[in-house]
């Protein structure tokens, strides 16, 4: 931190940030909305004086990050609190330049993650692309996606994301950004969230482009039966009124619900807490599937997956690890992983790209196929993230980067970031990258 000396006058009041070592202006923990438990978000209340935005705000309550995860454990995890609707803004300068805006929505199966994790720092994108980077936190798990009549309407995390986009529309010009040139980027559950937003008239005009990384589009929004089952499992596990239970009790019941919903051996690992159909602002499943391309001519789309998504979920896991030790059974396990990757990620993403293109949308598709030399995960889920976000400190202990030197990651990353930044600025990833058509294979990266 060079100095705490950058002050911006936003709609809610004055905000003090700091200058980073790269000479960027960073503002952390800015409240974009406020919400009580199981209530929709409301715009943040104005404040008097100068808001200190030099430290990250609280993140949504969630279980600890698993140390055996492919990404490793984030450094400097912020405190958790239900009052978690805050965001980070990173900008080359808080001036009147009206730069393109990149808004990041993190993944984590709708139950974990935070945009303020070091993994998701946008410093390289901002420095290399002269863009404004915005990263909001939103409610997760039961606190964000439980649908229980009389208690929680569901889709609160999605409503939080909508409110963050409205905040950008109303405030980003004060940070040197253009509210009419917003690209929303999401990975995994973050990308799935964007596809939900694309179906909503409330989101119309709030973003111009989207980048969908590893969207699990084989996962549809939850229908009435699925949300009712989740609610039954959760209330039985909680054994108390969700409106007054402690956060710890909520998280314990949430974890028990996830385990029971997955069934024996955890085979059915579809997230039980996720966006719900026929709960505002989402329509029923059939309408969502058709309406998500409704604004295709007005929203440019870059969509893709990694080549071996399911490696990150299944490699080394009980039931698979013994079979992977022998050539004959290992081939069968590889075929299962490839099949589920096509079913949950690759096939539905390509079908969505086809749907958008058929509706006169400008669409670009890709497959990211790179694996670290000593990583068992290959081109698995999340492997593209270090090439775009964070830095060597954030990713130093990531198992999915085992054996890779950071210079190689950063060199490849410069090309990937250049493509993402070009898309955010012009709607085209790079020269020679053809537009998606139904009969064209996705562009191979890196």
Structural write-up:
Strands 1, 2, 3, 6, 7, 8, 9, 12, 13, 14, 15 and 16 form a twelve-stranded mixed beta sheet that branches. It contains twelve helices and 16 strands. It has a single domain, classed as 3-Layer(aba) Sandwich (Rossmann fold), CATH 3.40.50.1820. It has helices at residues 123-129, 141-145, 156-171, 189-197, 224-238, 247-262, 285-291, 311-314, 327-358, 385-388, 392-395, 406-426; strands at 3-10, 13-19, 25-31, 33-34, 42-43, 50-52, 86-91, 99-105, 132-136, 147-148, 152-153, 177-187, 209-213, 300-306, 363-368, 443-445. The mean pLDDT is 94. It is α/β, with parallel strands linked by helices. The longest helix is centred in the C-terminal third of the chain and has 32 residues, at 327-358.
């Amino acid at each position: 931190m060079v100095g705490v000396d950058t002050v911006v006058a936003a709609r809610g009041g004055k905000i003090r940030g700091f200058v980073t070592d790269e000479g960027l202006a960073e503002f952390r923990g800015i409240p974009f909305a406020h919400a009580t438990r199981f209530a929709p978000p409301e715009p943040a209340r104005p404040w008097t004086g100068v808001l200190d935005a030099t430290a990250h705000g609280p993140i949504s309550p969630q279980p600890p990050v698993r140390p055996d995860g492919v990404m490793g454990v984030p450094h400097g995890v912020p405190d958790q609190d239900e009052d978690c609707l805050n965001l980070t803004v990173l900008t080359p300068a808080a001036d009147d330049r009206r730069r393109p805006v990149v808004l990041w929505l993190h993944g984590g199966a709708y139950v974990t993650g935070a945009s303020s994790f070091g993994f998701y720092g946008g410093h390289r994108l901002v420095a290399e692309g002269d863009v404004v980077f915005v990263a909001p936190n939103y409610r997760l798990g039961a606190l964000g996606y439980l649908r229980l009549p009389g208690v929680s309407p569901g889709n609160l995390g999605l409503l939080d994301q909508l409110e963050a986009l409205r905040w950008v529309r109303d405030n980003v010009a004060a940070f040197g950004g253009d509210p009419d040139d917003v690209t929303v980027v999401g990975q995994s559950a973050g990308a799935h969230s964007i596809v939900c937003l694309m179906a909503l008239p409330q989101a119309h005009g709030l973003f111009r482009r989207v980048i969908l990384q590893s969207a699990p589009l084989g996962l549809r929004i939850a229908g009435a039966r699925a949300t009712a089952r989740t609610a039954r499992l959760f209330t039985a596990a909680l054994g108390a009124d969700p409106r007054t239970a402690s956060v710890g009790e909520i998280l314990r019941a949430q974890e028990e619900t996830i385990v029971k919903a997955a069934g024996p051996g955890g085979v059915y690992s579809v997230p039980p807490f996720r966006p719900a159909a026929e709960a505002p602002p989402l329509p029923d499943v059939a309408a969502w599937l058709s309406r998500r391309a409704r604004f295709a001519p007005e929203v440019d789309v870059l969509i893709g997956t990694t080549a071996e998504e399911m490696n990150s979920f299944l490699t080394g896991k009980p039931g698979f690890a013994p079979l992977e030790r022998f050539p004959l059974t290992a081939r069968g396990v590889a075929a299962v992983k490839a099949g589920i990757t096509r079913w949950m990620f690759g096939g539905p993403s390509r079908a969505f790209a086809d749907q958008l293109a058929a509706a006169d949308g400008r669409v670009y598709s890709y497959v990211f196929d790179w694996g670290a030399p000593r990583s068992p995960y290959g081109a698995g889920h999340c492997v593209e993230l270090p090439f775009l976000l964070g830095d060597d400190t954030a990713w130093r202990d990531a198992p999915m980067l085992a054996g890779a030197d950071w210079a190689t990651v950063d060199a490849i990353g410069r090309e990937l970031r250049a493509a993402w930044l070009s898309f955010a600025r012009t709607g085209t990833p790079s020269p020679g990258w053809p537009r998606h058509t139904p009969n064209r294979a996705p562009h191979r990266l890196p």
